[in-house]
Specification:
13-stranded antiparallel beta sheet, single chain, two-stranded antiparallel sheet, mainly beta, globular, about 55% strand
């Protein structure tokens, strides 16, 4: 009987400890303050797929796609921050910047061509001009290819809503908790000079999935989903949008110690647009379906 009682007591103690660990609450802080002079290293890889299907009077006129990938390593120094203490101007010392072009001629045999675009040690300055990231080397704008690729992995603060404003939580959360995103802040964050989004067209949630250890640091594994409908990107004259949506999934490892910034993040964004010629513009029925999918994974390490 004594052994049975001891076993029951031990089980009860384990259950209490387990309950405590499970119920532990954590501060959710997705945007951590930066300061001028901060330095960190990043490594990223990803790709962007662009697919276009065009029909004229119901018959396919174009069915093409292009995939461009990136491998990137660099050291970042913060030169300026915005009102949210997010880097708004940085210096990037290139470790490697490689463009990956898919030149497969058949779906059964993949053929990737890797092209280095900048030499190791090249210093690139990044800043915000007209609400977009602009990259220069020796005060000269980089090529279109380099601009496109760096824009996939470098995002600067523009003084608008932050990740924390949109996906964060004002109250502590425990593992398994899911909460609604801030739609008003999401509309502010998504909108740009030529693209306006209404908060009623946005929905999404954030989840604290679990607690993980990354490079010896205890981190919150946080996932978020976002869907935006009725977006209105600029279109050529005579073309009207019938349907346009954006779907995005984000995840990241955010240290429990909020003095340390995120250690990794992964994002997948898919933009789908269906457009057609406006009435009276052409006697033919023209429909254009465009899909843009971007997938990027980034890891960070911080210098003392």
């Amino acid at each position: 009987m004594h052994k049975i009682k001891s076993s029951i007591a031990a089980i009860a103690a384990v259950c209490c400890v387990s309950s405590f660990v499970t119920a532990q609450e954590y501060q959710i802080l997705l945007t951590r303050p930066n300061k001028v002079g901060d330095k960190f290293d990043i490594s990223s890889e990803g790709y962007e797929l662009n697919k276009i299907v065009a029909t004229i009077n119901g018959e396919t006129a174009d069915n093409s796609q292009e995939t461009i990938g990136i491998e990137f390593q660099g050291s970042i120094q913060v030169l300026a921050i915005d009102s949210n203490k997010v880097p708004s101007k940085v210096s990037i010392t290139i470790g490697k910047l490689i463009k990956i072009q898919d030149e497969s001629r058949t779906p059964f045999i993949r053929q990737e061509v890797k092209t280095p675009l900048l030499a190791k040690g090249t210093i690139v300055n990044a800043s915000v001009v007209s609400d977009k990231e602009v990259f220069t080397v020796d005060n000269t704008p980089v090529s279109e290819d380099i601009q496109k690729l760096l824009s996939m992995v470098i995002t600067l603060g523009k003084g608008r809503a932050t990740d924390n404003d949109i996906f964060g939580s004002a109250v502590p959360r425990k593992v398994g908790d899911t909460w609604e995103i801030n739609r008003e802040k999401a509309a502010e964050g998504v909108s740009e000079a030529e693209l306006r989004v209404d908060k009623d067209d946005i929905e999404g949630t954030t989840t604290l999935k679990d607690v993980v250890t990354v490079d010896g640091t205890k981190c919150l594994n946080i996932n978020a989903q976002l869907k935006v409908k009725n977006i209105s990107p600029p279109m050529p004259s005579g073309i009207v949008i019938k349907k346009a949506t954006v779907r995005a999934n984000f995840s990241g490892a955010f240290p429990v110690d909020t003095s340390i910034d995120r250690l990794s993040e992964h994002q997948e964004t898919t933009t789908s647009i269906v457009a057609e010629n406006a009435a009276g513009q052409d006697s033919r029925a023209i429909t254009i379906e465009t899909t843009i999918k971007q997938v990027v994974t980034t890891k960070y390490s911080y210098k003392k």
